[in-house]
Design goal:
This is cAMP receptor protein. GO terms for molecular function: DNA binding; DNA-binding transcription factor activity. By secondary structure, the chain is α+β, with helices and mostly antiparallel strands. The protein is built from nine helices and eleven strands. A four-stranded antiparallel sheet has the order 1-8-3-6. Strands 2-7-4-5 form a four-stranded antiparallel sheet. It has a three-stranded antiparallel sheet with strand order 9-11-10. The radius of gyration is 19 Å and the shape is globular.
């Protein structure tokens, strides 16, 4: 797995894309590139925050465990996405666990170095606030999807946001179980929605488990 430079990783991340070159270089100079095997734990719920992570390649599953042992997938973080940023900025224990769902490379900004810079660098704080405002808006959209959308609308919206090749083929970035959990659905409901979209000739479900989009307009309509 070939890693990009820390500067390229930060540039591709929405949280830092609006930063000026000076402040981005400050973060670049303190960052580390970390490599993780499939199934490797990056941190556990309640641990001291090790730092802010940006995925360069692969996929990281971020999840919370309930008191009765139930698990909810909060994020499936792919390239360009961040996690543990709120705990890093607030300097409190991580509220969730993170595990590499695939072989993954992440840029990590160590929390001790970040905290020192936040105390001294007001321009960095201001520019990070702008980036975090967009992140909060993203969370509001996720909450809207879970509370106000039915199962078909949630699945359609999720599939609409995934990349596809020229033939319309979509590769799911994680297991159906994890995706269903992320959408606050059971695995059975997620599979049932996929079959319904297939019966309506919106999707073509192949025997290999991949998905080919055959009617983009109808899928977009369901995701509105």
């Amino acid at each position: 797995m070939q890693s990009r430079s820390p500067g390229d990783v930060l540039q591709s991340c929405g949280l830092f894309r609006g930063m000026d070159d000076l402040q981005r270089s400050v973060l670049e100079n303190m960052s580390l590139m970390r490599h993780f095997k499939t199934g490797e734990q990056l941190f556990s719920q309640g641990d001291s925050c090790p730092g802010l992570f940006v995925v360069d390649a692969g996929l990281v599953r971020v999840f919370r465990m309930g008191q009765q042992g139930q698990k909810h997938v909060l994020h499936l973080c792919g390239p360009g996405q961040t996690f543990a940023e709120v705990a890093a900025f607030g300097d409190f224990p991580v509220p969730a666990s993170a595990v590499a769902a695939q072989p993954s490379t992440c840029l990590m900004i160590p929390n001790d170095l970040l905290q020192k810079e936040l105390v001294a660098n007001h321009d960095l704080c201001r520019q990070l606030l702008v980036g975090m405002s967009f992140w909060v808006r993203h969370f509001v959209q996720l909450l809207d999807d879970i509370v106000l959308r039915d199962a078909t609308s949630r699945v359609a919206r999720y599939l609409n946001e995934l990349p596809r090749d020229a033939s319309g083929r979509i590769e799911l970035p994680a297991t159906k179980k994890d995706i269903a959990n992320h959408l606050n659905l059971s695995s059975e409901t997620f599979s049932r929605v996929l079959r319904r979209l297939s019966d309506e000739s919106i999707l073509d479900l192949t025997q290999s488990g991949s998905i080919r989009l055959t009617d983009e307009q109808s899928l977009s309509h369901y995701g509105l």
